[in-house]
Structures are given as C-alpha cells and as structure tokens.
Amino acid sequence: MESPAVKTTNENDLRLEQALSWLQQLGLDLQSDLVPVAGDASFRRYFRLDIAGQSRVLMDAPPPAEDVRPFIDIDHRIRATGLLAPEIIHADILNGYLLLEDFGDDLYRDVLDENNSDIYFPGLFDVMKKMALDTDASKLPEFDTRSLRSDMDLFPDWYLGKHRNAVSIQNFAENWQAFCETIIESAREQPQCFIHRDFHSCNLLKTSSGDIGIIDFQDASKGPVSYDLISLLWDRYISWPRDRLESWIEEFRISLGLDIKPQQWLRYCDLMGLQRNFKIVGIFARIYYRDGKDGYIEMIPRFYEYLLGTLRRYPEFKQILDFLEQKKCAP
After folding, report:
1. Cα–Cα dist 324/328, whole Å
2. What are the sequence ranges of the domains in the chain?
C-alpha cells in the first residue's frame, strides 16, 4: 500500500512528520495513517496506527515541555509488579516519541456507573492495593510539603485570581495558610507509598482480556497512601453517595491492613480529598486561562461541590467554607 503520510497544517505537525520518519527508519510495516486519540491536559498527544496488522499508540511528548523518561521508569515499575501498563515497543527518548501497546478505548469512565460498581470496584481496589504494597517507590519524587502546598495554591492563584478575579481574597488568604498546614500535616502523617497521582476513570481501561490497563502514570510519586483511593472515589464523571464513599474508604483500610483507627482514616481521606480537589479546581482554571483549552472548565462545578460537601463536615474549616459559599465565589 502507499506509504502513510501526515498532512502538515501547522508547525506542530512537523513533529508528526518526524515521528513517521522515525517509525519508517525502524523498518516497521506501517499500514495506516496516524489517527488522533483523545489527549489529556498536558502537551502530550496520542495517535493510533496499524503496524503489521496490530494496533499501536504513538505518544508525542515534545521536549522540553515534556520528558518521556519518567513514563518509561514508572511503566517498568508497574509492569514489574504484575500490573498492566502498556508495553513500550520502541522509544526515541531524545525527541520525545514512544510506540506503545494499545489498550483500546474502553475507559472506565464509560463503563462504570451507579449500578455496576460492585462488579468493577473490587478489581480497581486490587490494583490500588498492589501499587501501594508491592510497587517500588524507591528514588521516586516525594509528594512532600512543598508539592502538596504548590498543588493547593493553584486554587487561589488561578481559580480565585483569574476565574473569580473580582473577589477580594484578603480574608481568605488570612485563613489559607493555617488551613493548608492542617491539610499537609494530615497527608504527611499517613504511611507513604507508591501513588499513581491521577488514578481515576479516565486513566483506567477495560482491556480485551478483561484486565485493567493503567495509563497516564508519569507523575507517580511516593506519597500518602490515601491519595489514589480519593482520586478514584471523587471522580470527575460520577458522584457517589456519602454512605458508599465511607463504606469503600473503610474497605480499603481493612484491605491494606492499615493500623489506623477508622475515624482517623476517614479524616485522612477527607482531608486528602480536599487537597486534591482544591488542586483540580485550580488546575482546570489554569488550563483554560493559560493554555487556552476549554474542555475542563465545565468540570469545575462538580469538584467545587466536592470541596463544599467535605468542608461542611469539619467545623474547624468554617471560615474557609463561609468564604467559598459566597455567591461571588461559586463557579
């Protein structure tokens, strides 16, 4: 068949021409053009192609904005544990290209709903347990005090500072420091282990074998054991009733054999959820105002409600809650 080609419509497509040239230099039997696959919030792009009758995925991670080495490192760690991360078939580290195994398109975002959680959650919990207990976290970046605070400060910097820039944040700022210290102390008290950092339904796939494929793990760190659990439970596409959340939270504590009392563990998870969800609201605003991507701004209200719902359970956070409940602050 005629050699696949990529039409150059802008400067970025020069990278696709370079990628295609790299694949051809490897002597691969390309039998299709590059077909875009849904991307993410980063500068990475993904394309599906047929090579010798097998579907593969090309990751385009342009340097210096992106670096494929962390992805390769974490991929090896996850696969060494017996979990399913995509096989890296070829790598061009210098230019930021990876040719990957294709897990298909059956995201848990599309298969998980209120009626089948009892079917799918046990397998997801098994994956989280194996990552927490068995996956090597040595020499990974630590999700430390600085990282935790930097994530949280995305909220005042981008959501309040850009999306709600008419709001006076003086009173908020006066309480923000102490609030962040409480959240960070809670996170640092927990057992620290391998964490995916973005373990949710858009980064998990139901593969043709029925196994759970794990993707988008390049930011994995050594961090609080509750982090991946709350990432899964406070999801961007489905909101779970509080009683179910608490049941799963306790189930995971028992599954990991954590020597933490149930109420303390519940507090750890709630406060970890606050840390992550403040970050998410802030980062979705940043993606819109800094990067010009509008696909995430519409998701802010769900995470904002997560914040309010959790803050209402802790009287010690009343001042933060009162500020956020003002009409002028709402999404």
Report:
1. 9
2. 22-101, 108-329
Highest mean pLDDT among 12-21, 31-40, 126-135: 126-135
Residue bearing the bigger pLDDT, 291 or 75: 75
Q: pTM of the prediction?
A: 0.92
| Beta-bridge mates of residue 101 | 56
* Superfamily of domain 108-329, CATH level 4: Aminoglycoside phosphotransferase (APH), C-terminal lobe (3.90.1200.10)
pLDDT computed for residue 8 by the predictor: 37
C-alpha dist (Å) from residue 21 to 6, 69, 131, 296:
10, 21, 37, 33
Q: Which residue has the higher pLDDT, 166 or 82?
A: 82
- Average confidence (pLDDT) over 254-277: 98
Asked whether the domain spanning 108-329 has the same topology as the one spanning 22-101, the reply is no
Residue 80 confidence (pLDDT) above 70: yes
Q: Using omega within 30 degrees of 0 as the cis cutoff, is the peptide bond preceding 64 cis?
A: yes
Q: What is 22-101's CATH topology?
A: Phosphorylase Kinase; domain 1 (3.30.200)
